């Protein structure tokens, strides 16, 4: 019953795989609204180019288990920026059912941090070999 590598695979598939839905949606429907958020925060609008990196490319690497640790940091950073730009007003809020208003963002952030510390594991393209996996 003790299979750390299977646990690593499951968390990678969950965190990376579910984030892919957000990234693919934004690729199809656009993510220009983020440029407005960056501009309002007095940040360079070209930073919007980080959205496909953090929501498509990094999650793909996480799911596959290639350069897993840096990809997980990219995803965690993206979630931190998303909370800062869009969700700061909800940071201490509860939703209508009593749950944490930012539980999805917290899941992606802390899940990515966990993946960073755990690594890819044996059930990955990299077989968990190398310091980046």
Report on the structure:
The chain is mainly alpha-helical and 133 residues long. It is built from five helices and no strands. Helix 1 (4-29) packs antiparallel against helix 3, helix 3 packs across helix 4 and helix 4 (68-87) packs antiparallel against helix 5. The model has no long low-confidence stretch (mean pLDDT 95).
Profile the largest sheet.
Answer: none
Q: Note the run of SSEs as H and E.
A: HHHHH
Tell me, briefly, the overall form: globular
Radius of gyration: 16 Å
Structure, briefly:
The protein has 133 residues and is an all-alpha fold.
Blueprint of the fold:
Blueprint: H1 4-29, H2 33-40, H3 50-64, H4 68-87, H5 103-118
Helix pairs in contact: 1-3, 1-5, 3-4, 4-5
Provide key terms for this protein.
133 residues; mainly alpha; 64% helix
């Amino acid at each position: 019953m003790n299979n750390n590598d299977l646990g690593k695979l499951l968390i990678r598939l969950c965190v990376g795989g579910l984030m892919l839905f957000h990234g693919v949606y934004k690729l199809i429907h656009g993510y220009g609204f983020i440029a407005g958020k960056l501009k309002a925060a007095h940040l360079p609008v070209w930073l919007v180019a980080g959205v496909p990196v953090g929501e498509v490319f990094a999650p793909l690497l996480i799911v596959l288990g290639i350069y897993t640790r840096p990809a997980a940091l990219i995803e965690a950073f993206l979630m931190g920026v998303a909370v800062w730009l869009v969700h700061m007003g909800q940071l201490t809020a509860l939703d209508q059912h009593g749950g944490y208003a930012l539980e999805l963002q917290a899941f992606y952030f802390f899940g990515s941090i966990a993946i960073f510390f755990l690594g890819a594991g044996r059930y990955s393209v990299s077989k968990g070999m190398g310091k980046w996996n």
